[in-house]
Amino acid sequence: MQAFELNEKWNSLYVGKAIKILRIDSICRPDLFIGVDSEGQRCLTLKVSDIPDIYCEKSELSNLSIEYFAQDKRIVIRVLNEYFWDLFNDFIISIYNKIYDIVNVDEAVSEFLKTFNRWGDFFDDKKGTKLSEETIIGLFGELYLINYLLNQKDPHFSISEIENSWVGPYDKGHDFEFPNIEYEVKTKSSRNLDVNIASEYQLQEELGKDLQLVVIDLDKDYIEGISIKKIIMLIKDKLLEVGGDFLFIIDGLKQKNINFNDLEEYDNFRYKAEKIIFYDCLADGFPRLFRESLSPYIRKVRYQIRVSKLAEFIKLEKDL
Q1: What's CA 286's distance to the chain center, in Å?
Q2: Radius of gyration of the chain (CA)
Q3: Could you tell me the residue range of the domain that residue 115 belongs to?
Q4: What are the start-end ranges of the E strands in 52-180?
Q5: Which of 49, 83, 123, 174 has its CA 20 to 30 A from that of 295?
Q6: What's the average model confidence in pLDDT over 95-108?
Q7: CA-to-CA dists, residue 203 to 180, 186, 288, 299, 310, angstroms
Q8: Looking at residue 96, what is its pLDDT?
């Protein structure tokens, strides 16, 4: 299911005295429909065989609502602001990808409602706390690595592994945790020689896993650079193309207190990625500090690594 297919279906609907609905396609096993109501609001509906276990009478966010109609045995989600129509398409595709092959109705309803709950806050037009440019640059680097991994011709990781790997927004040990390797991402200006290491634990490997330091050189470039919203849209388009789930990006952004409307506030921060380098942190001689090697009287360590001196530890270097 692609966004352009949905737009063609929306165009085939018209406003009348009652809700006009259209089955989303012939492949989806649950009875999933899109519709336009008498007020012109776009809807997504799911036909159920009985009252769902999680009964929802009516719930409304600032731009999205959900209601259960017992008489019709149908759950209806409405988008209340046309500004969010494109996002609503993405939301529908996410639900479709979750439930299209589910035969059990109760299981489909459960996924339908869970997806609504996870997406709901992204339709909120409340403004979060404005993030510093330093935070935006760090987030941009992590998102850039996701986009890089998704677009490899010979991928090392599956789509689901990439979706489950991003833990940077949750303040885990490293930014990306794969089954056999972890990545710590550092983003810097191409003019800077050093990267900052926030603690003695940041380059400590997880037992049984490889660890690589990923350094991304960025230059601020308002003409040729891209914004954080653009990199998110590139990721979204790729995920939808390959049947992935965009929810992990939404959840990560929520952890950073960013909602959909917030993204445009950072359009003046545009960056052009120049180079990405992967360093083997477990190689003999790689410069890093360990908690066990420090005096017990030292409580916290911050330090810098001069990456220009790390040529012997490079696993992969690529100009972008």
Answers
A1: 32
A2: 23
A3: 3-123
A4: 58-60, 64-69, 74-79, 176-177
A5: 174
A6: 90
A7: 16, 12, 7, 17, 15
A8: 92
Give the position of tokens 């940041």.
202
Claim to verify: residue 34 and residue 154 sit in the same structural domain = no
- The distance from CA 208 to its chain's CA centroid, rounded to whole angstroms, is 27
157 & 201 share domain? yes
How many angstroms separate the CA atoms of 60 and 236, rounded? 26
DSSP state of 279: E
| 142 shares a domain with 106 | no
Residue 128 falls inside a structural domain: no
CA of 103: how far to CAs of 48, 50, 80, in Å?
Answer: 12, 15, 30
Nearby residues of 163 by Cβ (< 8 Å), 6 or more positions away? 239, 244, 245, 248
Distance between CA atoms of residues 244 and 234, nearest Å: 13
What is the predicted pLDDT for the residue at 128? 64
CB 193 within 8 A of CB 265: no
Q: Record the pTM.
A: 0.83
* Same domain as 174, residue 259: yes
Q: pLDDT band for position 270 (50/70/90)? A: very high
Q: 43: helix, coil or strand?
A: strand
Spatial separation of the C-alpha atoms in residues 130 and 138, rounded to whole Å = 15
Domain boundary (123, 143, 166) is at 123
Distance CA 262, CA 24 (A): 30
Give the C-alpha separation, 288 to 144, whole Å. Answer: 25
Domain-terminating residue out of 123, 149, 181: 123
97 with 231, same domain: the answer is no
* DSSP-assigned states of every residue in 167-230: -GGGT-SSSEE-SSEEEEEEEEETT--EEEE-STTTTPPPTT-EEEEEEEEEEE-TTT-B-HHH
Distance CA 186, CA 101 (A): 40
Backbone angles phi, psi at 189, to 5 degrees: -70, 145
Give the whole-angstrom CA distance, residue 250 versus residue 259.
Answer: 8
